[in-house]
Amino acid sequence: MRADRLLSLLLHLQSRGQMTARQLAVELEVSVRTVYRDLEALGAAGVPVVASGGPGGGCRLMEGWRSPLLGISAEEATALLAVASGSGPLERIALGDALAQARLKLLAALPAAGREQANTTASRFHIDTQAWFKPTEPVPQLAVLVDAVRQDRRLRLTHASRAGVTRAVDPLGLVAKAGVWYLVVRSDRGIRTHRASRITAAELLPESFVRPADFDLSAHWADWTAEFEASLDQLAVTVRLSAAGLAALPQVLGDTGSAARATPDPQAPGWHRLVLHFDDRKASCRRLLGFGPDAEVLEPTDVRRELAETARRTAARYDDPGPAPAAVTRDPP
Fold it and tell me: 234 phi and psi, to 5 degrees?
């Protein structure tokens, strides 16, 4: 138990710099006296701990001293190695070499006895960030966007939907979601998100910018995606699905169908009722036709009518048996 506490004390000092004994006591949930005893133990083990009293004083590590990866568990090493071993978004923004180097350093920091085991275990996990049935989306300007984000340099962008119109922006971050890159920027229009593949030109400007102190990329992305998803699929369609249709729901509708909640339909034993959401009436008809006779639209009535009419036209298309197969002739022996 004390070994774990000593490691935690060391990591606090290494990651946060100078701290008072009272602050350390609160973080470690021990007494101030215990903190001082633990500091003495670290010093006896060769860790250069410096303590100063008076106002502004505290405990810190000697300037420039850094420990290696200390006390990393086999599970922690496996998780880090699994991430570092996979290819994906980081490969596309020139961090692939850095990832490989990080993997080598991590392996070197592990005890020899656990190195092979952690490496072998990590090789049994693979992280694939690419969405199904979608090739990697080309992003011609990605290298420029990466440089701008790294260096806090302003950009002049041209967007595909606004050909010829350029805008100077502050690139706050890049996000990779299911194989698609998005650029989060700040401009005179506020903070916006652009699909990186739709940026047709990006010029790195000489001036830098100061990031908003309160901006958090992951929090912004969570808020933005929630708003974006809420703005789509506004048409609610109540459908009845057979057992076969319910089983085919993820295959036909993907994530959209997986999120829907089905309940048994009391008016049709063996069938389930659920509400699905689509962009518009035509989109709902196209996608619901994939269920064939295993789905019935209950409301709205205009979607029910259009789906029925589309099904009739589709069936009529196949009333004609089509051209007869060509006769097979054989040469006489």
Answer: -85, -15
Residue 176 CA to chain centroid, in angstroms? 6
* 256 pLDDT above the threshold of 60: no
Q: For 19-43, write each residue's pLDDT tens digit.
A: 898 999 998 889 999 999 888 888 8
What is the C-alpha separation between 300 and 277, in angstroms, rounded? Answer: 12
∠13-14-15 over CA atoms, to 5°? Answer: 95
Q: Is the pLDDT of residue 332 over 60?
A: no
**168 three-class SS:** strand
Per-position b or e across 5-27, b if 16+ CB within 10 A of its CB: bbeebbebbeeeeebebebbbee
The answer to whether the CB of 261 falls within 8 A of the CB of 274 is: yes
pLDDT (mean) for 73-86: 70
Instruction: Give the strand order in the sheet containing 263-264.
Output: 263-264, 272-278, 235-241, 295-299
Residues constituting the chain: 333
Separation in Å, CA 6 to CA 22, 41, 45, 91:
16, 8, 11, 37
Alpha-carbon 190 to chain mean position: 23
Cα separation, 278 vs 100, in Å, equals 43
Cβ count within 10 A of residue 154: 20
DSSP state of 30: S
Quote the CA–CA distance of 142 and 135 in Å, as a whole number.
Answer: 17
Helices (H), the chain: 2-16, 21-28, 32-44, 74-85, 89-92, 96-109, 112-122, 142-151, 217-231, 243-247, 249-253, 255-258, 281-288, 301-317
Cβ-contact 18, 59 below 8 angstroms: yes
Q: Report the distance separating Cα 251 and Cα 257, nearest Å.
A: 8
Check if the beta carbon of residue 106 is closer than 8 Å to that of residue 80. yes
**pLDDT(69) > 70:** no
Q: Are 171 and 182 in contact (CB under 8 A)?
A: no
- Give the burial class of 220: count Cβ atoms within 10 A of its Cβ; 0-12 exposed, 13-18 middle, 19 or more buried: middle
CA 14/CA 65 separation, integer angstroms: 9
